Here is the input.
Amino acid sequence: MGRKNAKKRKTKERSGHLHVLKGTLDITRSGMGFVTVDGLETDIMIRPADFNTALHGDIVKVAVRDTSGRGRRMQGTVKEVLQRKRTEFIGELQMNKGFAFFVSESDKPMPDIFIPLQSIGKAKGGDRVVVKLTSWETDENKRPVGEVVTVLDAENSNDAAMKEILLDAGFPLQFSDEALEVAARIPELISAEEVKKRKDIREIFTITIDPVDAKDFDDAISFRKLKNGYYEIGIHIADVSHYLEPESPLDKEAYGRATSVYLPDRVNPMLPEHISNVLCSLRPKEDKLTFSAIFQINGKAEIKQYWLGKTVIHSDHRFTYEEVQDIIETKAGLYAEEILILNDIAQRFRKKRFNNGAINFSSQEVRFKLDEKGDPVGIMIKESKEAHQLIEEFMLLANRTVAENISKIKVQNKPIPFPYRTHDDPDEEKLVPFAAFARKFGHKFDTSSPEAIAASFNRLLKDVQGKPEQHVLEQLGIRTMAKAKYTTENVGHYGLGFEHYCHFTSPIRRYPDVQVHRILFAVLNNQLSPDKKMEEKCKHTSERERAAMQAERDSNKYKQVQYMRNYLGEEFDGVISGVASFGFWVETVEHKCEGLVSVNSLLEYDEFRHVESDYSLVGHRSGQKFRMGDKVRIRVVAASLAKRQLDYDWVVVADEIEEKTVKQTRKKRK
Here is the structure.
């Protein structure tokens, strides 16, 4: 009997049944593939003949066929594609007799896609197009089949670049016909029956405050004075979950995207425009369905009670941030009394938050002024002012309150699987060198506890205001922080100083907010059915968020390169924003555009070594030091749109030449 079992085990091992793993396929430029698997220290090598229809970035099942050799890399075969990273590609359409085929521009090797003539639309041979992969059977002789989605404008390279960034990050450019059909069938009329199910606050003063160019308004604030002397302040969020039926084609597509992506010249939305800009946008003078957190608050910003539930609202006015900021500064204008009271309470909340351990990192957001073609013609620096903080503090209040409410609920003595928004304590490995670096500028850092670290950060951020080291210490401080993510493990939000936190306030553009709405509604109605796959869904939405952030960074970098091409050969003042063994990055003071000064370009002056603990490059002979935060002069020497890369040269100013000469003379004398 034992021999039979042993024989069965060997047969299973040979067939690969015991070694089928799930991972992500990375295809190198040379064409070789490697699958990374969570929990495995080394990746699995996949030869091109064993990809089995998988493409770069796909999540796959891989059968490992060589695990015996010690010290040898595991090899495997892709058995199944579980999830494609992308199904749309940019490239050239080439015509043949009776059919066409598509050649991708991707730097990752992939086969040509067969395009039936009925699927090329208005495209012609030689056109640059977006093609969607529609089928690919696993039979060895079968080719991938696709259809032309869009013919790209040959003269608009910017449009193609932005689309390629989105596609490379795994975000489709269009919604499926099935999803659009579901969206189109949703009625705009709010029935009297639906209104009866909700708290009706249409008669209460309500406003929205958003960026001047916003098209979807997913949050509103209501305000009134109560007879008991308290203020009733409501935070009302578009009730997307009312319109988004779980597991419908539209819901599945929204979950797949998980987030809207904001590029300098466009938004790639999570939901079709009919929902995000019409049905769920809290436009003024229209009745809208919302999910709300309504608070009774006294003048000291103390919360006396709150209510959570579904509502119907009617916004009285749409404000821009600039309009509200003007009212705050001048203390006059439309609805000035209400706005000034709301702002006073928001600032009290903000002060309490920082007193309770939240970290006050300031942030500057770079925005591009674009012409009609999307080309950058100027740069603006957007700073957080009190108008932004007014909205921020009330959104934080709603998010925190919902998370606190859910955290108290148990099902069979277990917490509800819920997508908390968490932020862990700082990374100790990064914190130690940062504290040592800050000490060089005279800033003491207490690392004895998370509370002490937060207090030290706030003290440092206050002390460095206006000093030369402000930028570098702020940037390095942010880098020591853990990354925020979605997870069912409620470890709190360190940066905000909250024990419980979630995302409730932006369901038009974030799928976790939709999940939060559904769970909260089920809890309020005692109809909860815990989702056992919630942690897996949290990992997906966190990954999509990271992909969106990378796409936004890549698009901003593209715009920087576009903009700085106008200044090739010109010199600017800059600040060193990063240091590595191969050079240092400089951000121009005037434009906030970052480029690399290669260490090779410095060889005529000296040979430089990287001092990691000091975030610097130091010259062997001259002692010349380039340290993060140092001011330098640079010349723009190259701007590659293809690589999204700026190259700068260090410009030696007169006093630096003199100083270097003196140092070298002293060394010779010695």
In short: Residues 534-564 form the longest helix (31 residues). The radius of gyration is 28 Å.
